Amino acid sequence: MGDNVKTSEIFFEFFKDLQQSGLLTIATIVFSISGGLFAFIYGLSAKRRERNLRILEKQIGQFDGEMVNWGIRGIDALSIAHVYVLTNFSGRDLQQARIAKDELQATLSALVDAGRLYFVNRSPDLEGIDRPYANRGFRPAILDALMLAHEELRRLALPLQGEADRVAKNIFGARRVFVSELREEIDKFRDPSVLNTLRTLDDDWTEVGKLVDDYEGRYGERAFWLRRPMPRAHLVAEKQQRSSEKATAKAA
């Protein structure tokens, strides 16, 4: 009887060890498969991230190149405008001067609209919200520089009168502002983290503002800027004031 009990205990321990050993083996296999699967998925994810990063870098590089090409065309147009006014359209007769002036105006106007694809307006959610999407907010200073040259040409009477030197000086100033703004904007776009905050940042219209002051001094207030660009904080305060007035009127 005692021998049978001992034998049973031996078999019980044997099967218990076997069961535990089997579970351990299964657990080992499961962990091995899970680890391998995790490594495989992580590897795929890492490759996907790397591929997406390469695509993003390529797109940024392409965008950067397009922006630089646009900027070079802008510099060319401003340089030509300056020389045309400074030299009385390089000795062209009146008809040819008018043709050259119209063509240059068209080029500058197209550059302004093309520039809207690269440079965002400031505070589009607070200023001019009833305008078309691309025209909401304040036009950035870089595009104002181009637009100022366009407007100087548009108002320039042919044959040239005594204002020509002043106009030429203002267009030259616009070119200097344009180049400086272009350099700064390109640096911003080369840092993707800046893109999402540009719309809520105040631009610096100080230098182009001096040129606008000269222009509007000759052609009248609001001849260029319908409303002078202002800090976003001022626009927010205006919006809050309007909301408060509406709430008061509604409650009355």
The helix count comes to 6
As residue ranges, the low-confidence spans are none
What proportion of the residues form beta strands (DSSP E)?
Answer: under 5%
N- to C-terminal distance: 104 Å
| Quaternary form | single chain
Question: How many separate domains?
Answer: 1
- DSSP, total strands: 0
What report would you give on this structure?
The protein is built from six helices and no strands. It is an all-alpha fold. The chain starts with a helix and ends with a helix. The protein has one domain.
Summarize the structure.
Helix content is 72%, strand content 0%. The protein has 252 residues and is an all-alpha fold. The chain has one domain.
Provide keyphrases for this structure.
mainly alpha; 0% strand; single chain; 6 helices; 252 residues
Q: What does the secondary structure layout of this molecule look like, with pairings?
A:
Elements: H1 2-86, H2 94-115, H3 141-154, H4 164-189, H5 206-219, H6 232-251
Helix pairs in contact: 1-2, 1-4, 2-3, 3-4, 3-5, 4-5
